[in-house]
Design brief:
133 residues; mainly alpha; 0% strand
């Protein structure tokens, strides 16, 4: 599969992931402060993103090793979006309902590069035995 096709699939997974995140965030926002709602929604959507990117974007089998490394793909995304949400809501007075969507846009290219590096890394024989069900 070409890099362009992977980018298109990554973008589609990103749309689904963003919808999942935002739906969880809005539900959690009714009972939690916005930063707590953001963190929990982010973790839940990241788990879904791992499996969608494994099977759909990169057509690779998920392994425990990749699953444990996958959060690195979102580390920069998390820092940028969390900082962005804080700056937009806390300092700029932006609505806490829409700030996550605005903050997420800046992190997409970095997330793709790191994700592609981790997900397409060849499995060693030991890693192949560690496949996630």
């Amino acid at each position: 599969m070409t890099v362009t096709a992977q980018m298109a699939r990554f973008a589609l997974v990103g749309v689904v992931n963003t919808g999942t995140y935002y739906g969880c965030y809005l539900v959690l926002l009714t009972v939690l402060p916005y930063i707590a709602a953001h963190v929990i929604a982010f973790v839940l959507s990241m788990i879904g993103s791992f499996f969608l990117n494994s099977w759909f974007t990169y057509r690779t089998r998920p392994t425990w090793r990749k699953f444990l490394l996958f959060p690195l793909t979102n580390a920069a995304n998390f820092v940028i979006t969390t900082g962005g949400v804080y700056l937009l809501v806390g300092l700029a007075g932006f609505s806490s309902r829409y700030a996550p969507l605005v903050a997420a846009a800046a992190a997409i290219p970095i997330t793709f590069v790191v994700s592609r590096t981790i997900m397409l890394r060849p499995d060693t024989p030991a890693a192949a035995a560690e496949r996630v069900p």
